[in-house]
Fold:
Amino acid sequence: MAHQFKNIVLLSIDNLRPDCVSYVREQYNYPVDKTALGAQTPNLDSYLAKGTLFPHTYSAATYTTTSHATIMTGQFPVQHGVRPFMDIQDGILSLGSLTLAELLKEYEYETCLATDVPELFTTLSIDRGFDTVIARNDSQWQKWVEQNVDKKKFLFLHIFDVHEPYFYDESKDKFEQAQYKALIEKLYTEYNLPAEKHINPQEKPHTAWHAAWSEVGRPRSRAFPLYAQGVSWFDQHRGKRILEQFEQYGFFQDDTLLFIFSDHGEGYTDWNSTHFLHAGSLREDSLRVLLWSNFPFDYTDKRTSLTSIFANIDTLLFDGKYKNENSNAYIAERWISLQPSPGVQEDNTGKPVISQTLQDISYMLQERRFSIGEKDIVIFGRPELLISLSTRPMTTEDYIEKLYEYVLMRPSDEAGKRHWVATADATSRKKVVWSFVKAARHEYQKPYILHIEGWREFISQQDLSEQEIIELGHAIAEYEHLNTEETVTSLQLFFETLHAL
Amino acid sequence: MTFQEKVEKAQDILKQTSEKWKPEEVCIAWTGGKDSTVILHMIRELYKGAVPFKVMFNDSTLEFPEIYQFIKDIERDWKLDLLWVKHLQADLDAYENATDTEEKMEVMRIAKIHAINQTLDEHDIRAFIAGIRWDEHEARSDETYFSQRKAHTRVHPILHFTIDDIWKYIRFYKVPYVNLYDKGYKSLGEQPFTKPVDDPNAPERAGREATKEKTMKRLRDLGYW
Structure:
């Protein structure tokens, strides 16, 4: 017998590290960065204590759009199609992907998406199925709840306060935020930012924040403590208000199925960088997320993925009729933009918007992380595609361009390309592949395959066994809809090449 | 009609078809596009995963490579009794000899009708199931679920589906489809005459050359189609 719920409520706290929630730290003993101890969340904790915490939950991406497409569909990125952060040409939600809103609407739920940054959803069709979309207005979604008090409701609330700029309350009028203004001014002084680069945070809160870091990068030693304090600030202010409102609406009661989660964490950006942010490499601190429900799920301590939200709702309400058959591997991926991405900026009223110049940006798949059994494997570039280069007729110019894409993960530079085209013509393509592999190793100062065994740190570099390469090949082939045999063979050749260096 | 009622209506048309004709007299026009694939899926739902009718794929030789791959994959996965019907050589020659796009398109439209009619005759088909919909184009707004032609009956089970219903069906029933739709193609015709549509609100068939529907209407009026 399927369960009945009057309300389905999803609260997405963008960018929240689970180890910055004190209840999570107390309950589970996975490695925690000591800086996270600066975050205290007594209000959130008091609610989390009365439900089910999924302590080892992973996101499918380190950025908001892709992760939310996964939450909405229960699918991994290659299935739902939202892969780079904001590819408005080819990265729109797949027409064949069923969203939670569409599903629940069909079963007579009123559907509402309330978000601080609607452009992240609407631009890529991630809002498909929602009857109502509310932008940056807590009183408006509360009004929606009250107007539909007797109806079945699906509310998806996405809040951006923990996201940078830390301490900025997206729900409040910007002119009221005296504390935020003081923080920005403090940062400008601390980093000796020349006066001509100062931005008024009351006019452009996001740009003012970025300006503060422009001279010093984003050193983890400074940014992480601020982030942790920002989480505490959120818990004391808007977070508290929202949770109290939820309680008043009865969203913690049995007739509501409530999930509280984050879409990605915050941490090291690239493998060799000390910058503290997200949207970077597929490391634990960016991928690990909060996931909690008021429903008493019978769960284990095993790892889970954000795809499980869709699957759990479907299982409870519809006997699992609509969920996806996902691979045994948990998969995450990272795409990089090949041109500078403007990301989130402000319009002339200070509201965050996505720049339309994004349509000119092209993207490349840089990293994939496959969690197979107890092992996590991160792959850079697309080594499994190298084999197709040897079997496909193509000009030397095209061949070299593909090597840049598959091995170096960047477009060619003119002089470099000219050199390698000449070398390939004078010697052989095979020789050039080897040179590229060497160059890549030098360029990134990192191995192609990493085993990640810890919470924060990349621990060891090992070679994979023959069996592991085959398993990896199967997982990639299944995920990317490639020919399994070709993929395995190509990986084997790739590793042979590496070993021979 | 709710979505569920629309699905039931389509299933009812298919059931009536199987009551009126023997399975070997029924053939489905399958283009590899979303609409006819939805019909194939409905039939599989009705017959526990089997497709008891013949399935015809009319190969103009100009289809997208993705369509050919899709046809092969689904034929294998769904164990279809597939009639792979190529255009007649004489028509393909005429296509080669045609001098401009307009003429080439006209030749291909007639070639399609030749190939289909010949196959219907050869296999003694009495009921021919096609995935046309009322909302596709004005020229189709008068169509009926069972439409009598000279030697056979056209069956149109999803006439009442809108394009949104088609996608809803694909999502709820996990129907496979060609990924060209995700690249902006709204409707898939022969490759040289089909382009992606940038405007999501553009009429579905705007991607194909606009004169096509006019010609199709004329041919239907002439009893060809």
About this structure: The longest helix of chain B spans residues 101-122. The CA atoms of residues 74 and 80 of chain B lie 8 Å apart. Strands of chain B lie at 26-29, 54-59, 82-86, 127-129, 146-148, 153-155. The first strand of chain B starts at residue 26 and ends at 29.
